[in-house]
Amino acid sequence: MENILTINNLTKKFGYLTAVKDLSFTIQKGNVYGILGPNGSGKSTTLGIVLNVVNKTNGDFHWFDGSVDTHDALKKVGAIIERPNFYPYMTAEQNLKLVCKIKGVSTEKVEEKLDVVGLLDRKDSKFKTYSLGMKQRLAIASALLNDPEILILDEPTNGLDPQGIHQIRQIIKDIASDGTTILLASHLLDEVEKVCSHVVVLRKGEKLYSGRVDEMINSHGFFELKTEKQSEL
Ligand code: ADP
Ligand code: MG
């Protein structure tokens, strides 16, 4: 199996607070990984570190078995870690063409990616007329413009209505079945169960479990996780 991302003993401290503690896991090509944990468990911090927007305190990570440095590796990564932000008075298509120019990639993939997220028939609508779910789908299309090896999503369904949640999850599964590796952070066990093949469970920055989702569900400790679900996980 090809390794996309390897994290070794990663630690992040914000002053006295340890947000991520001695965390290790590996992302292999072709799988759908969830980082699962309640709010404040270190999910976004972990994603921020591997995307080079947060400085690590200790430990290490490397992309693609260290074959390229992080700067070059990130050209092969698509990520949405913030609320999608586009120009409100430009159409979806115009916004994506602009993203292509900024990223230095060809604009020929714009329609293909709009189709992947089910927005091709709305490509001429202004961004401001989009629902929250459509905005999130446009953000996914945008993150796919450079045909990334891996797509990283932080809480991809937060704030969406049930239909929007269902659509996003289906799109993630479609993208994965086309061979793109996925890493998503979520506080919802349900989301990880529905979308992911593999999971890293975090609590207070520490890894509680990592492995296959089906094995987690069948495993002895799962009832503890289920109980925690009531209070968030
Ligand atoms: P999650 O994404 O799982 O909700 P985060 O990674 O955002 O968790 O946060 C983990 C912990 O680190 C939380 O206690 C949070 O308050 C803290 N934290 C995150 N970012 C910062 C920051 N820039 N400065 C100080 N503390 C932070
Ligand atoms: Mg977060």
From TrEMBL:
Domain ABC transporter: start-end pairs: 5-229
Coiled coil: none
Similarity-based family: Belongs to the ABC transporter superfamily.
Keywords: ATP-binding, Nucleotide-binding, Transport
Included stretch of the parent chain: 1 to 233 of 299
Name of the molecule in the record: ABC transporter ATP-binding protein
An example Gene Ontology molecular-function term: ATP binding
Superkingdom of the source species: Bacteria
